Amino acid sequence: MQQLPAQRPLTVVQLPDGRHVYADPAALPAQQALGPQVVHIHQAPPDRTVQRVALGSGVGAGAVAAGVYFGPLLVGALTAIAANLAMFAFIALVLGWAVVTVTRSVTNSTSKRGRKAR
Predict the structure, then answer these.
(1) Taken in order 41, 42, 44, 47, is the CA torsion positive or negative?
(2) Would you call 13 helix, strand, or coil by DSSP?
(3) Which of 31, 43, 65, 95 has the fewest CB atoms inside 10 Å of its own CB, making it the most exposed?
(4) Exposed, middle or buried: residue 44 (CB in 10 Å: 0-12, 13-18, 19+)?
């Protein structure tokens, strides 16, 4: 009988030029990262997404600082705008109610006077 070593299973490996081959990964030379590092942001919480995009794309600390500073500032500004719109809507509702009430009152009083005069 022959004493052969157990054959290791081959796996599919992607070469730097993009081709896929069956090879033993241990036998291939070490690969250097050619492009930018891929950062998966789909699992990041919403308040950290801008920072992760900025760091992952290599933009730097300025973009991270802008995301940290302007993110909450934008939320505060939008909240203030929404509060103003809600207040204006309430004022318009009250003024509309007042106009309808006064109009009905004037219309009812003139219609009663008109009937009495006849």
Answers:
(1) positive
(2) strand
(3) 43
(4) middle
- The owner of tokens 């291939």 is 28
Q: Which two tokens stand for residue 4?
A: 């052969």
What is the value of pTM for the model shown?
0.39
Listed residue (35, 36, 69) closest to 53, CA to CA: 36
SS3 113: helix
Q: How far apart are CA 76 and CA 82, in angstroms?
A: 10
State how beta strands 11-14 and 20-23 pair: antiparallel
Place of tokens 């891929």: 38
* Segment 67-99, tens digit of pLDDT: 778 888 888 999 999 999 999 999 999 999 999
Rounded distance between C-alpha atoms, residue 103 and residue 97, angstroms: 10
